[in-house]
Amino acid sequence: MDCLLQGGTVASLSLFAFPSARCRGDGWIDESINWMDNDRVGDFTLSQTKEDGQPQFPVGIAVVRRTELDGLKKKSGFAGHFDYERARIEGNDYHGNLLLRGDIEKRLKNLIRSALAIASDIMLRERDRD
Amino acid sequence: MELGNVTRGSSEPVGEFSMRGKMNTVRGAAKIVAHIQNAKVAEQLERLLLTIQGMIQVAKDRCPELGEIPPLHAHIDEDGSALVEWVFPEFRVGFNLEPNPADSGWHLVSNKRLQDLTASGQLANMEAIVPMLVDFILPNV
């Protein structure tokens, strides 16, 4: 599925999917992220591979500032529906999640997904930057 | 209003489609609607595209120098609903079309330059909501 639309804008449908099937026992749907703790995290994330060895992110990655995430959390109507967390996993100290309530009304879910997309900057792989 | 003949030139899978085209923002709608299994979702999508197409055409007739209107992008979800996204450089408009039309909705988000707007609502009165959204869109194209 394409993650970038013509013009370089983010396709929110794929990058911020929050599929209902991934709702956790605590009622949150998680979407994996890496926290950009330092300037090595971008390359670290781009180097991640799938089980078959292919790049996890063949085109590039979306970068969202923490201030944008905090702004979304505070917005009227979003309170309690959107959050984020740190969740270190083996081999990845930067790992975390964006969180969306599983019982969120669909139009609000899509609004938050679009808000994340519009707040995103795109970091392309080196070969795609020319 | 007819949507016109559509040539299926895309190799995209059935569940996803993009309505591309400089001259027709909703090109391909007739064929796409035919792929939706839920009749109420299909009917809403067709109404939505016809409403948007009509408004864009009127706007272009009145203002020939109107900037390029990006194409609508749509996705059929596994629950049978359809999500339509209209992506502009500084804002995004979306519509979720549900098997129960009372659950269908719309949303709008913008970047900081356009006041960091977030708005959403039900789509029960589509013919009233769409003109309101288009009135926001056209001056900001």
Q: How would you describe this protein?
A:
The complex is a heterodimer of chains A (130) and B (141). Chain A is α+β, with helices and mostly antiparallel strands and 130 residues long. Chain A has one domain. In chain A, the strands form 2 sheets. A 3-stranded antiparallel β-sheet of chain A has the order 1-4-3, with helices on one face. Chain A has a two-stranded antiparallel sheet with strand order 2-5. Chain A is globular. In chain B, strands 1-2-3-4-5-6 form a 6-stranded antiparallel β-sheet. Chain B is globular, with a radius of gyration of 15 Å. Chain B contains 3 helices and 6 strands, in the order E-H-H-E-E-E-E-E-H. The two termini of chain B are 25 Å apart. With 141 residues, chain B is of the alpha+beta class. In chain B, strand 2 and strand 3 form a beta hairpin. The longest helix of chain B is centred in the middle third of the chain and has 24 residues. Chain B has one domain. Classes of the chains: A alpha+beta (130), B alpha+beta (141). Chains A and B meet through helix 4 of A and strand 3, strand 4, strand 5 and strand 6 of B.
